Amino acid sequence: MYQKNFTFQSALPQGEAQDSFIDLDRLMAIVTRRIRTIIFAMAAFVILAVAYLLIATPSYTSMTQILLDESMTKYAEDQPPAASSQQADMEIASAVEILKSNEMALRVVDTADLANNNTLLNPPQSPAALLKSGVGLIVGIFTPGRPPMTPEEMREAQRQKVAAVLQDGLKVERVTRSSVVAVSFNSTDKLLAAKVTRAYADAYLTDQLNANFDATERASVWLQERLNDLRQRAQEASLEVEKYKADNGLTSTGGELMSEQQISDLNKQLIIAQADTASASARYNQYKSIIDQGPDNAVKNATISSSQTDNSVLQDLKTRYLAVEKREQDVTQNYGAEHPQAVALRAERQDITRQIYQELQQLTASYKNELDVAQSRSASLRESIEGVVGKNSEANRSLVHLNELNQKATALKTLYESYLGRFEAASQQRSFPIAKARVISLAGVPTAPSSPKKTLVIALSVILGLMAGAGLAAFQEFRDRFFRVEADVRSALGLKFLGYLPLLGQQSTGKKRRRKGIIGSDPATAEDVEPGVAFERIMRVSVEAPRSIFAETLRNAKLASDVMLQGRPDRVIGVVSALPGEGKSTTAANFAALLASSGKRTLLIDADLRNPGLSRTLKSPPQAGLIEAVLGEVPWTNVVKVDPRTKLAILPVVVRDHLLHTSELLSSQGMQHLMEHARKMFDYIVVDLAPLGPVIDAKAFAPQVDAFILVTEWGATPTNLVRDVLEQEPQINSRILGVILNKTDMSELPRYSDFGGTERYRQKYVSYYTEAQPPAQVDA
């Protein structure tokens, strides 16, 4: 079964067209293969879960919900700015910790009168708690005793113990992202659970009221003390300001010092005086420059506007001068310069010029007096300012300290007013006992136990069982480094797979029979057969059951040898294994019997000189064998035995105790001569060689062998061992026809095959391997 036509190409595993992250087919095959382990682990966990549910004490949980609402005090106090999400989270977290605190637990113990509650004082203990108590008792025996407690200490210790139990059974958590806090208590008594939960809600609300009242009371007392102190200090600061002003003459009007007002007035007057001085100096300089030109030039060249002087005499003289000058010019042009009228007009003009010059001299003298007066006034104002400034600098130095005193007095006054407002607000808040929380869900008496949750426990046990089973199955799979299916042979060794040899007794029906041979309880391999067991009873399976899986595998091995060694008239085939006890002797005998029954001249040589399993199966123990023939003590043809039914020639071995160098015997000249003669007489020579792992006999005999058949025990021989052995023996590895998996448990074989593997369809080929079937059961 499961044979493929032999080819010369190596049967290496072919990679998939595309790599996949998880090989689902292989995973499903592993699950199918290890399903019993997984089911066993899951059943064990389910049994443990059921046992736990039977012995566990049911407990009940009662829950209440408290809303933390800041808007409840909006009519009693000014609303602060809206808190950020981080501040809200901190407030809710603080409320949760308050509810979990020991102080809150003690308050519940006192208000609900739970100090003597037997359920809380002696709760049902878990196995771990019992173990801990036992360890504590043992440790207490060896530790020095403590002095006896007083009744008060005992009551306090009992109170603390009940509070600790309450804290242990209490659960406080925030409801999603809301401002609601869920408070629940777990107990074996459902009435007690509801009572404790209600007590916690009432205790929290009371704690909020008491905390607000106490905080407001303490704030009012502290503010009152601060107000008295601030009032006295503000008064002292104001008096100190006034006293400093009086001592330093720092009088003020309109909020400014007198010296500052004087300086401001003098500066204004000085500016006006300086302007007047500049104006007088300009007029004086102008008239003085006119006077300096002389009488004639002063009148002719000087130009005095009416806006610069208001002297009407000077204006009239100027007007007369212009009129006379014009008449003089007309007379001189008409009558000549010597005309009496022209002479009279010239004299009149000169007289007017003299009068104008005198008038200008008078005006210049008056402007000189005005300039002197203005300059004198400016100098006097400067002296006054300097005097006042000197005094004001001293006042300014005093003013710095005065400002400090004023600032201190103002700050104390402002602080006093601020604290006074806070004191009044705190006094008003004491009259509003409103908590910033309210109960939105009352704690009821639970109707069903909250734990153990049967469905959850069973489901969890199933999940844990599956996980444990999967882990155990993975561990088993990891440790299973043996040959199981054809793919293992190809991937690990890269050799041709010839087929499976089932456990004897399974070749027909494929049903498991506890590794029994076809003859009752006889062993399944020749290595394990005791002397005296009939050769044909164990070595003729392939002949007696020609349509069995066993025989079909050996036929595939024959076909492989025919293809690989075609053209050769004689063929030497060695049968080897990596370890002892893998069934190579049984395989060699049945392979040789199959060849002989097909009409081929076949010789079976037992070349396992140290452990000749084939020779032990003979009915009559041989007196001489291969060793004697090689050593030349007897002709080899004389020690050959022939099976009367299959005509198979067998060359046995007689073990010698003093024979130490078996490998040298197999590679000796005598062995070569024996093989040369045997090749001339037989078509096939099947040689049962020693295992490759422990001894080197097979390696020594390898030059005489044309091809090898490697026998490996199914599910027992490690793949790494066989691979390492073959890598160390390249001359054997290069001539291996293929690998046979012996002692295969055919009922278990499909479990190790991937989906779609040929091993999974073994049952479809049962009709091809049965010895006799009704015609109706034979496939067309």
Automatic annotation (TrEMBL):
GO terms of molecular function: ATP binding; non-membrane spanning protein tyrosine kinase activity
Source taxon at top rank: Bacteria
Topology of this chain in the membrane: Multi-pass membrane protein
Keyword Metal-binding: no
Alphabetized UniProt keyword annotations: ATP-binding, Cell membrane, Coiled coil, Membrane, Nucleotide-binding, Transmembrane, Transmembrane helix
Transmembrane region(s): 35-55
One Pfam family matching this protein: Wzz
Coiled coil: 220-247
Residue span, Polysaccharide chain length determinant N-terminal domain: 22-110
Domain Tyrosine-protein kinase G-rich as annotated: residue spans: 405-477
Cellular compartment(s): Cell membrane
Domain CobQ/CobB/MinD/ParA nucleotide binding residues, every copy: 581-750
GO CC entries: plasma membrane
Protein name: Succinoglycan biosynthesis transport protein ExoP
Organism: Rhizobium lusitanum
